[in-house]
Amino acid sequence: MRSPWLSREYEKKHDVKIKKINDKYVLSSKNNTVILNESEYEKYEQNHLNEIEWEKLYYKGLAKDKNCEEIDISPDLNIDEMKFVKSKRVQSFPLKVDKHNYQILINPELGSWMALNQEEFERYNNDVLTNDEWFSLFIRGLAEEKNNVEVDLDFPLPADYPSVIVVNITTGCNLRCKYCFADCGPFKGENMTEEVMEATIHSMLSMPQVKVITFEFQGGEASTNVPGMRKFIEMAEKIKVNYDKLVKYRTEINCILVTEDLIDLIKTYNVSVGVSLDGPKEMTDQTRVDINGKGAFDRIAKGIKKLRDNGIYIDGAVCTIGQHNVHYPKQIMRFFDDIGMNFKPRPVNILGREKENHLTTKPGEWAKCFKEMYEMQDEVDVENFSIHIFEENVYTPIRDYICLRYPCGAARELVSVNPNGDVFPCDGFKGESKFVMGNVLNETIEEMLKKPEIIKLRNRTASTIEKCSKCLFRGMCCSCCYSAYGKFGDIYREDPQCIDRRQMYIYLMQAWLKKHSSNKELTNDKQPINN
Amino acid sequence: MKKREIKNDIVKNLKAKISKNQIKISFGNKIGLGYDGCGTHTHK
Questions:
Q1: Which residue in A72, A400, A401 has the most chain B C-beta atoms within 10 A of its own C-beta, making it the best mutation to test that interface?
Q2: In A, which residues are within 8 Å of B5 by CB distance?
Q3: Do residue A427 and residue B37 have CB atoms under 8 angstroms apart?
Q4: How far apart are CA A270 and CA A265, in angstroms?
Q5: pLDDT digits over A393-441, tens only?
Q6: ipTM of this predicted complex?
Q7: What is the pLDDT of residue A182?
Q8: What is the rounded distance in angstroms from the CA atom of residue A343 to the CA atom of residue A333?
């Protein structure tokens, strides 16, 4: 049995007493005893136990977590006396990894999973697993206990109030990118009024529960309205003294217009910076173009250099993936490695100008791109955030990426405000008037969150989407609401990248098992396998 | 280029409390705030 989900980094405890009785080794502490055979003990001695083998020692107080001392075991608990049964919530599917055939037990609600070899799966089906094996399933929500012992996985829940607001300081832009989901460009240019700025700041700083508020400047192109950004920040700095909140700023810019004024603003107020860049020149120049259709790569590169020459660190780049670059994952990875910039590849969303230009990926293309990037991640020295995000969802119970979790972060962790004061549940909707939650000049954002249609959106879970409600991977996934709307005209539909997502989840399970299958006792496959 | 180890540090610090009727596994770290709009995974 193997699973990264809920697993820790374990090590021996020094106060464990070990006694050899015949060919067995008895490990004991205050309240518990575990008996290991020779081969198990040899692995224990050499720290070669796998995560499930360590687990049976850890939950009996006979091993410790390298990163966390806190384990509180009541003396009245006896795992050996617990009675386990299969859970009706659990489903299974076969998974082949190299020469090995596994059966994956998965709890679709939690996204927890365990890989069993054929012999283990047969014992599972016949209800003859050992109590330690059942216990490992049980703590992952993959089995139940007959006497109603409960597992409480106490992890942070989706937020009730937003802590980030995307401040669209202008709708004007100095580029006319072919896939712009907000349909911005040089022909539009409404700047945010001071009235809207003030109302937005008060509305966010008065938000209940939230301790840290981030104002993220976007547009259009935020750098075309640096005076507006400055005005907003200066206003927020003054107003924040009346509230008990920590305020942070960040901006997402295209780097075309890196002026001294922008540099000064970033440095004075410690504004975090992200940029948009689709990879090497031949890729970026196809989509990130000006109104004359001329590629912007050279100007972007110049802007990045100017920021860096002035000591400004760039957090990372959003790398939009579409027909212009999806077939060149290795070149993209090497490019970002060469320029030393972390990046997040993500497919083109089907909104705004993308509806005319059809640049988004076809089914399977994004997954193939992701896999190739994953396979060469050890060759580069920069972080691919998408790998991190998907690994986190497949390998752990943590769901801190708000677009890959039900309910998503729209009108929960995040809202977006346009220059005229219209508020949207997510940045992705800012070009869609249908999704206006209200206007900051008329009501607070907190009040907007109480509207029935917003409450419904805030509770958009897999069970509200037909295809997702039946999906095995719904516990590690989420249909992006604005992407679904863009593709289907309905937020209560599956993600447009649904096929790719499933391939990516399965791939990551296979990748983990492949990496950790050096433990030869993993499988008992005796039959030759035809690959 | 040499590889920089990228560790998923956020999954560390899982605390466990085990009694006769309940096994509680809790996560003490703060969660981050990555989102899929234009922003990168940088709100942590």
A1: A400
A2: none
A3: yes
A4: 8
A5: 999 998 888 899 999 999 999 999 999 999 999 999 988 999 999 999 9
A6: 0.75
A7: 83
A8: 9
The crossing angle, in degrees rounded to 10, of helices A194-205 and A226-239 is 40
Are A249 and A217 within 8 A, CB to CB? yes
**In A, which residues are within 8 Å of B13 by CB distance?**
67-68
Confidence band of A221 (pLDDT split at 50, 70, 90):
very high
Tell me how far apart the alpha carbons of residues A530 and A520 are, in angstroms, rounded to a whole number.
19
- Check CB contact under 8 Å for B37 and A77: no
In the block, residue with structure tokens 């008037």 = A433
Q: Can you state the angle between helices A297-309 and A260-268, rounded to 10 degrees?
A: 50
**Residue in B22, B27, B29, B36 to test binding to A, most A beta-carbons within 10 Å:** B36
Both tokens assigned to B23: 């096994």
Length of chain B: 44
Helix axes A498-516, A385-395, angle to 10 degrees: 70
Enter the tokens of residue A460: 């958009």
Are B8 and A396 within 8 A, CB to CB?
A: yes
Tokens of A110: 């939690």
Q: A494: which 2 tokens?
A: 């599956």
β partners of residue A106: A91, A113
